[in-house]
Amino acid sequence: METKDSDTVNIIVREELPNNDNYGACNDNQPIDVNKYRSPFENRFPQDREYAEIVYDAELAIIAGDQPILSDKGTSGCYFVHGREGKIIGVFKPKDEEPYGLLNPKWTKWMHKICCPCCFGRNCLVPNQGYLSEAGASLVDSKLQLSIVPKTKVVRLSSETFNYTDIDRLKSRTKQSILQKVPALGKRFHRLGLPPKTGSFQLFVTDFKDADFWLRKFDHEDLPISTATRLQHLFERLVVLDYIIRNTDRGNDNWLIKYDPVSSRGSSGTDIEDGEWSLVDNPDISVAAIDNGLAFPFKHPDEWRAYPYHWAWLPQAKIPFSDEIKDLVLPQLSDMTFVEDLVDDLYELFKTDKGFDRRTFEKQMSVMRGQILNLTQALKDGKSPVQLVQMPVVTIERSKGMGGRGRTDSETFTQSFAHRAPFFSWC
């Protein structure tokens, strides 16, 4: 009888972690002790216990045989990951299964590359760095306290449902066969089963729908003033995030809205009598900014396409930024120390990629600094989101008197404006 890859991981954990009492929790849903649990995929999140527990829950579910499911949507490898209770708890996007990755399971991008190489990819983005962009957007969201991006970090996972090469699968089967026939030799292998993949792991949000669905409904029905105001504030947070990271792929299907209709805090199923309207809650509304993989360009779009912000056509974009968003982000964005701390945090994240290039990263940060400068000025001047995107794009390059990442007194910044416009600036 052939051993499945999940069984192999099971064997690894039991052999390498004999004292890991929490491994048995994969079958009985006991709480995970993050201080004792050792990840077979080498995931470590000592500063974020809650996130670590969710990732470990996903690992144990995979070990128990509940494999991630490939999403039908999109043009890359995107997997819904379950927890031990069988519910979806995360979305995993492997680096090598991104739109132009070597192991992308979707054929559409392969056809694009073969049939239309002249328009292949987005020339302003670093290839196959979408997983870092996803995690980077979450980092920016956290630093600015926007609270609209589901928490996302870089994670390593392995599953038989991921797209692997035939060689990797053959190696896995061979090692499993050796382990069964010659256990003493099989135990000497450094790793059994399929190799873990590096990618972004975003926490799954429930009861959300595409923004396009709700925005169309809101066009035909009036929202309570408090709910409409809340939606406007959340929309402005989305604008701040997208503009800072220069998201080139924010359509109305790439951000979500959760809308809970009006409900009574009293007994359910009874009519509301006169004088009891104080017991009624206004509809609750939330926003989630997902699909942030096409952000952090190393230059502004200046060749074929402009990649506009599609939310700029919404009526909410014509309203000047509120005092709420100004009070939230303006003090931080106006502080150069805060901005450079953000750059340093992104550096620590991006440098973990094997193809990391410092010069390219500095170009990415030059674009981001320019975006922050424009946003800061727009907030101070009381402009609207649509006026913000009409401002001349600028980059701010950092030059230092000495090498390294440490800051020095000789550190200077040079501002420059982009003069070249994309050929198709209307699309």
What would your notes on this structure say?
It is a peripheral membrane protein. This is Phosphatidylinositol 4-kinase type 2. InterPro entries: Lsb6/PI4K2 (IPR039756), PI3/4_kinase_cat_dom (IPR000403). It is an enzyme of class 2 (transferase). It is globular, with a radius of gyration of 24 Å. The protein has 13 helices and twelve strands. It is of the alpha+beta class. The protein has helices at 5-16, 25-28, 49-63, 107-115, 130-143, 166-181, 183-186, 211-218, 225-245, 323-333, 336-350, 358-380, 385-389; strands at 69-70, 79-82, 88-94, 152-157, 197-203, 209-210, 255-260, 263-264, 280-281, 284-289, 394-399, 412-417. The longest helix has 23 residues, at 358-380. It has two domains: 49-158 and 196-262 and 282-417, no CATH class; 167-194, no CATH class.
Task: Draw up the topology in text.
Blueprint: H1 5-16, H2 25-28, H3 49-63, E1 69-70, E2 79-82, E3 88-94, H4 107-115, H5 130-143, E4 152-157, H6 166-181, H7 183-186, E5 197-203, E6 209-210, H8 211-218, H9 225-245, E7 255-260, E8 263-264, E9 280-281, E10 284-289, H10 323-333, H11 336-350, H12 358-380, H13 385-389, E11 394-399, E12 412-417
Antiparallel strand pairs: 1-2, 2-3, 3-5, 4-5, 6-7, 7-10, 8-9, 11-12
